[in-house]
Structure formats: C-alpha cells, structure tokens
Amino acid sequence: MKKIKLAALALVCGSIVTASAQDLSSITQDKTTRIVSTLSADNMEGRASFTPGIEKAAQFIQNEFQRIGLKPVPGEDDLMQSFMMYRVSPVEKEVKLNGKDIKPENVFAITDKKELEWKQKGKQKVVTIGENDNFRTSLGELNNQQQDVLVLVHPKHEEIFKRYQHYLREGSVKQKLGESSSKVFVLTDQAAAKKYKLEVENKIEKLQLTNVAGMIEGKRKNEYVVFSGHYDHIGIQTAVDGDSIANGADDDAAGTTAMMMLADYYKQQPQPERSLIFVAFAAEEIGGFGSKYFSEQLNPDQIVAMFNIEMVGKPSKFGPNSAYLTGFERSDLGPLMQKRLQGTTYSIHPDPYPEQNLFYRSDNATLARLGVPAHTISSVQIDQDKTYHTVKDELEQLDMAHLTNMIKAIALASQGVVNGEDTPTRVDKSQVK
C-alpha cells in the first residue's frame, strides 16, 4: 500500500514539475495591459465592422503578428485574410397591421432581399413572441426556419427588440444574396395578424471583412491547433453620461489580447510538434462571418483543437485564476486541460451557464459543427455582468492580474495538445445544432 501511495505521489509531483517547468516569464501584466488598452481605446471607436476603427484594430494586430514573426496561414500571401460580403441596410419600412400603421422604429427585418412586399394572402408564416417567451431563443429558432415569417413581438421585449434594431440599422451582413428566407419583426401589443401589408426597401453594398491570421509551423505541419478571439465589437451606441463608445474591453479585446500574447509566448518556445494558428476573427458580433470564412479555408479533419478565447478579463464564479469551457461535455479537451493544470493555481471548469447557450454564441461553433473539438474559454459571470454590450465595457472594468493569469493558464493547459502528447476526441457533428 505504501508503494502505491508513493507512486501516486510521484505522479502528482511529476505533473507539478512539468507544469512549473514551463517558463511563463514572457507573459507579463505590462505586456497584457499594453495590448488590451490599445484595442479598447476610444480611438478604435468600438471596433464595429466596416468602420475605420475596425481597420485600425486590424492593422495593430497585423503589426504585432509581424513583430512576433508569424507566417501567413496556408492559402494566404500575408497576415490579412480578407473576403467580400454583402451589407443589406434598411432604407424604408412601411407596415400596416390590422388596419393600424406601425411606426418604422417598431420594425426591423432580417433579409437578403432588396425589396419585400407582403400581404396577408401571401405565403408568410405568422409567429408571436409572447410576453413569457424568451426573445433570444425564439429568434434563434426563427433564423433556422426556411420560410418567410412575420413576427409579432410583445412590448415586454422592447429593450432587447430595440437593441437588435439598433444593430441592424447599420445593415445586416450576408454571404450571398437572394437565397435565404426573410423575417420581419414588429413590436406590437396585437396578438394576431388577420390583415397586414408591409413594404421594406434596402440598400445593398459589397464590402470587405478581414480576419488577421498567422502561424507557427510545427514539425507535423499539417496538424493544426487554433488559438482565436474576435476583435470586432459594436461600435458607437446611444450616449450614457456623455460616453457613446462601446469599447469592448472584455468583449473581446481581452480574448484577442490573450490570443496575441499566446502567439508571442509560443514563438519564443522551441518549434512545436503541431502547427499553431493564431487568428483574430472579424464580424463575430454580426453573425460570426469571420470564423465561418476561416473554417472554409482549411480541412477541418486537420484541425486537432481550437482554443477560442472570449471575455476573460474578469474573475469567474469559481474564484481566482479560474475559467470555464463552453461545451465541456462535447469532447475531452476540458479534462485534458484540467490534467495539465493539476498542481498549479489555475483551474478550468464546465460551463456553469448552460441556459445561456454560450457554446453556440461564439466563434468556436462553426468548427465544432464540422467535428473539431472547438471550445470557448471564458471567465465572465455572464448572468450578472452589467457592462456586456454597453458603453461601460471599459479597460477600468478589467482585472489585469486575472487576465494575465488566464493567459498563463491557457499556455499551460494547451501544452499537451501543442506538443502532440494529447489529442482530444472529436465533437459529434450529429449532436451540434
């Protein structure tokens, strides 16, 4: 019995020594602060897609990748992975419901059509989001429907309705035109649409989006490990106390900073066994188009794992130096990370907010749908966070010691996958929505 205990002790001590042996001295709070403060500064203007602010942020990330010495990813000539999209912006909205005119500010449409003209004798389905329904859940279900839908939204949901309308005021983004169904949302106390008529006119523009992506080639150069974070945010909002810039410090300057710091860290290590890709995704906030495009450029069977990082600037509910992994049960990447963190002050936990559907709300979802063990690391207490998607998401709200420690934790937790010792199980594609 004593020999068994000694052997077990030796095994634990071995894991502590292995974790501690990694030199994390290059990951400092000063470096972390420099990057996250630059990305979340007022002069980035909230990093909304298709704005000068997002272009400035992309240039900064590219310069950092060049300084670090990253190479372009396969199929690209440089670190900017650019692609074209269509922006569909509302010009005019006229809706009459049961003989009553609806104000334009109580209407928004999700469509890829230049014009919509609907009457009650049309083929549209009518759906009601009632007082006790979950607006976000209902929206997700409607977006998966293939037919045109007129959606009547109870006034109780006015706040979140107006938030979506504000996002769409600058235009919704589409990969293709004319192939999707349309959804028109009307904020009203009317519970039925016995008679309706609506006309929607949009402006269509062809515009560019850009991921910033670089690579460290490994010994097994066709086996990829992805580290990612989205660098866009929601731009200029309604002013609160004179401040209209949604700086997006935690969402997701913090995660983008972590990804960039990990690129710098791994570039200073010996050549990794597997190739490492570091990518700052565009357009997560308006539909995850950056990660969708990225996923189409590589063979998903060659991607061993994805460590997507989002909102790691504030302590989690599990205490200091802790984070959680979305979709923890969908592969064994989480347990592999936990194993690497044994004997350290850091810890990774299953997602404590399953009702928030976080696994599908970040850039990991696209690759997870293709079978990649792609998960998001986060620490935000999303059920209590008061600055999410507001002008209050500022640098001063972040715990810089925690953010720096999260970067160190991910460096330790990812080591086994990077050096080829750990290979996580694949996500069951049939179980992913």
Automatic annotation (TrEMBL):
Residues 211-411 form the Peptidase M28 domain. Keywords: Signal. SUPFAM superfamilies: Zn-dependent exopeptidases (SSF53187). It comes from the Bacteria. The keyword Signal applies. Residues 1-21 form the signal peptide. InterPro entries: M28_fam, Peptidase_M28. The keyword Signal applies. PANTHER family: METALLOPEPTIDASE M28 FAMILY MEMBER, PEPTIDASE M28 DOMAIN-CONTAINING PROTEIN. This is M20/M25/M40 family metallo-hydrolase. It comes from Pontibacter rugosus.
